[in-house]
Specification:
By secondary structure, the protein is α+β, with helices and mostly antiparallel strands. The chain folds into three domains: 205 residues, D-Maltodextrin-Binding Protein, domain 2 (3-Layer(aba) Sandwich), CATH 3.40.190; 77 residues, D-Maltodextrin-Binding Protein, domain 2 (3-Layer(aba) Sandwich), CATH 3.40.190; 93 residues, no CATH class. Helix content is 39%, strand content 14%. It is built from 17 helices and 15 strands. A six-stranded mixed sheet has the order 2-1-3-13-6-14. The longest helix has 16 residues. The chain is globular. The protein starts with 8 loop residues before the first helix and ends with a helix. The N terminus is likely disordered.
Amino acid sequence: MRTARPSTRALQIACATVAAALLATGCGRSDDSSAADNAPAKISSGKAKGKLVMWSMGDKADKDLQSLAKKFEQQNPGVKVQITAVPWDAAHEKLTTAIAGGNTPDLSLIGSTWMAEMAAMKGFQVTPASFKASAFFPGQWDTTKYKNTSYGVPFIADTSVIYYRTDITTKAGIKGAPADDWNGYLKDLKAIQATAGKQNSKLRHATQMQSGFNSWLFWLPLVWQQGGDIYDAQKNKFVFAEPAVSQALQYYSDIFKDGLSPNDKTDSGQNFQNGLIGTVQQGASTGGNLHLNAPALDSKWQTMPLPKGTQPAGLAGGSDLAVFKDARNSDAAWKFVRFLTDPKNLAEYADASGNLPAAVQSWSEGKLGQNPKMAAFESQLKVTKAPPAVTTWQQMADAIDSELEKLAYGKTTVLQAQLALQSKATSIGTGR
């Protein structure tokens, strides 16, 4: 049974979108717009030619991406692809500086929650019309959009699911997967917790909810699952004073208040492996690490989609491919994007790298869709949503993290957290 390759890249991609503060609105291109700025890029017929420079995020060269580049060169003898690795912790500043100075590569991987900020800087070309939204999971396609215009193409998808230890859940009297709705799942968590130190001698907590840094990634879907949102796109404003927000905050708070989750920020993946927790919400890299570090546990864990409220929902993260306005070889760049996101090529990349493909058809082209433990990810990707496509999103995300951390430590109430979030949202605004 194949699991995601033992790499932390999938989670890093989501986490890496939390980076430096936004640049001042005066940076980058002029805010003056023209019809040409919003016109889709065009791709010529024929083979790609010339030198093509791409930035790929990571601490070292992505050999699986390099392998696809070689294949592209073989199909296009007149082109030479140069892929440069850019560490995630330096990527945001490097990208925004390059856009502001008009000194960009031809294309790059872009953390999905950076898309709106950099599109607002007029850093990217508009996606050619030949790329169809229907070929990708809806939430992933939405990560490419800013003001309802697409400025890239989804490449690496990312979302989270529930991992559960079947040996632990069975001892708690749970047959099969835990319940797939909020109330039922909470009931099952309490049943798991009741066995801590008894039927399950190592068990300390039923689950481990993220607190502090990046906790918004795990909390925001709770709002959507209740049929609500934190952002009103029509009015272009944050709306934290909504019942769904209160319900999501209460659900999050209760998990800590009832002792179902620790708030000590220990490694949840390691705790899950060690049997200290029975379930955990995480991305695909957790499965890869489990298979690498504890293959004997392969038969003792499984995955399921996130529990739903009034509807299923999850967060669409990952990385998109974007071609820069100042690209020197934009025609070859778009042809390479088309090549990389072809379902068969993307399936090949996913099988080799362990990353989740953003193209729907790729799941039936490669081996990933044949792995039962990955089925939950495919199901989850069908109902994911993108975070608000506003240039101030990172500031708002940091504010959410801060309030959620207070809830986890019992230093605020649900009402106080909700009022604080609305106040901060009003102060932060939605930017350009």
